[in-house]
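Extended Data, panel c. Modelled sequence:
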Amino acid sequence: MKVAVIGAGISGLSVAFYLKKGGVEVKVFEKKKTVGGKMKTIHEDGYIIETGPNGFLDGKPYTLNLVKELGIESKLYRSSDKARKRFIYTNGRLVRLPENPIAFLASYLLSWKGKLRLVGEFLVPPKKEDIDESLSKFAKRRIGEEALEKLLDPMVAGIFAGDPDRLSLKAAFPAIYYLEKQYGGLIKGLIAKMKEAKKSGKKSGPAGPGGVLTSFKGGVKDLIDSLSEFLGNSIETEVEILGLDRIEKGWKVKYKKGNEVFEETFDAVVFSTPAYVTAKLLNDLNLELSRLLSEIEYSPISVVALGFEKKGLGHDLDGFGFLVPRSEKRKILGALWDSSVFPNRAPSGKVLIRVMIGGARQPELALLSDEELVNIALKELRRIMKIRHYPEKIKVFKHEKGIPHYTVGHAERVERIFKLISKYTGLYLCNNAYTGVGVNDCTKAAKETAEKILVSGEREG
């Protein structure tokens, strides 16, 4: 069996890994010079700087299992205890996110009115109609406007760089969606889950992502490099896919490398490209499928990485970082204190901060010049963190189409997309555009996709 994987981000590399390990001849096509997609790490002057995600949560097994199969457990690097301290910038100051009910009651994050409204969620009846709704509508209905603005909006900015008014609850936060659907409410659901966990002897986690943030000693590059090393000559970079045609048994892929055009046949093809790229590649095959793929939106985001002298900085960076609610009307989504979370990210006596700008909230800001982005980042850090130092290290990373934005109706759209693609034997989709944007979501989908292909190969064999 011979399989083509188009796109060498974490999804494409992972699905290719599982296929090759399963005995399949695999070929990975990547348009750029380097692999990894948005998961890249810069090593410079003692700094270890991520261009995109800085790791994964170990509360789910998918990436950890991949790491074990690659044999690189020794490279894992768990975040420090400081990562548990997370802050929200509200009313002109940084306020720590409460970690338990007692801390929540004592917190200044919500007013007493907001706290009572949140606790009153227990009495709110569940929604009767089973229709998708935005995170904002859900929050206003169940926990109130203040909790939406101070808790959910910044969380959405941190995960999706998204807009809660347009983001689908069902697609973006399925665990929260199913708590209401199954138990009639969030608090009722959490209490029920705690009871279930107690009976089974397991620890109960929150409705959202759980686990310890985990990366690698050399950054996420360690994972990408290990996958690349395993795949070796199976990866072809600087390749432009021109199209594909159905043949009697399989698919003919036409591609360009340098000035030469090639045609190669495969039993199956996996599209691990972003939805908008896949839409163009499948336009001649199925117009409706292409249209649905092109409807998946992306939030633009820019990351400004700043390295400072630690002495006299003006802030102790004791925590993970902070997020900014849209009601504060600031020009940044938040900042990650990377060298506090992973101490080896900056040289001794230095610190590393990454500032996120743009998103669905202010997309135009993400596309400003590097100089303008740096000025925004420094001005906002001065105001929020009282940092007056000028950085000794500056790196700017722009992602014009950064993070898939799961708008209302996304789950139904994706269901239709997968139903259409299933009509074409040997075609598969595996990318963060569909069922989850995190690293764990990508490695989970990769494993599942590879298993489907391996099973289909066994049937044909």
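DSSP finds 17 helices and 20 strands in the chain. This feature is highlighted in the accompanying rendering.
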